[in-house]
TrEMBL record:
The lineage of its organism: Eukaryota, Viridiplantae, Streptophyta, Embryophyta, Tracheophyta. Residues 1-93 form the ATPase AAA-type core domain. GO terms for biological process: endosomal transport; vacuole organization. It comes from Iris pallida. This is Protein SUPPRESSOR OF K(+) TRANSPORT GROWTH DEFECT 1. Pfam families: AAA (PF00004), AAA_lid_3 (PF17862), Vps4_C (PF09336).
Length: 230
């Protein structure tokens, strides 16, 4: 009892001692929902009260402490907490250019043969996707070369001595499997193929965006009432 609000107080004290500093609270609605709700516990009320008290002093006397918070349910926030934040900025879903960049960032240096036009096409096909949706998509795609290697019935040996999965008609193709190569002590010599545009098409065919039109309408309505555009 009393430990949670003490942690809140300690957090702000640390921020002041290390100023300039930023306190970021993700999913702030889980801490600061509407007061008086039936499922609100006494501990939750005390945390909320302590947060309000600490935020009251932020920004005064040039303390150089900035408090940022994020939520997907802005209407669930307690009004007093909402008033403590001078700016309430709506961050919309990523646009086409942002999505194109996200695909590149998440792929990183993973071997692939995608062209700039491929990335543009992926961005166009993922209208309505959030950054999280794109991350999930790429994460799924990263497994495709492994799946191809596991299922391959033919491999070709490269000039560098690596075994690469291929089709039966490819020049130099040898009928074997990953398990057979591993049994011969060649597991470290197996090289999965690079990621292709087809791999992305396969994953996107079964993936849907997680943010609904109704969700977006709620955020846009809140922005008109209380916020500003990002």
């Amino acid at each position: 009892m009393g430990e949670s609000e003490k942690l809140v107080s300690n957090l702000f004290q640390m921020a002041r001692e290390n100023a300039p500093s930023i306190i970021f609270i993700d999913e702030i609605d889980s801490l600061c929902g509407q007061r008086g709700e039936g499922n609100e516990s006494e501990a939750s009320r005390r945390i909320k009260t302590e947060l309000l008290v600490q935020m009251q002093g932020v920004g005064n006397n040039d303390q150089k402490v900035l408090v940022l918070a994020a939520t997907n349910t802005p209407y669930a926030l307690d009004q007093a907490i909402r008033r403590r934040f001078d700016k309430r900025i709506y961050i919309p879903l990523p646009d086409l250019k942002a999505r194109q960049h996200m695909f590149k960032v998440h792929l990183g240096d993973t071997p692939n043969n995608l062209t700039e036009s491929d990335f543009e096409m992926l961005a166009r096909k993922t209208d309505g996707f959030s950054g999280s949706d794109i991350a999930v998509c790429v994460k799924d795609v990263l497994f495709e070369p492994v799946r191809k290697t596991q299922d391959a019935m033919y491999f070709v040996k490269s000039s560098g001595g690596m075994w690469i999965p291929c089709g039966p008609k490819q020049s130099g193709a040898i009928q074997t499997t990953m398990q057979d190569l591993a049994a011969e002590g060649l597991a470290s010599k197996i090289l999965p193929p690079p990621i292709t545009r087809t791999d992305f098409d396969k994953v996107l065919a079964r993936q849907r965006p997680t943010v609904s039109k109704g969700d977006l309408e709620v955020h846009e309505r809140f922005t008109k009432e209380f916020g500003e555009e990002g």
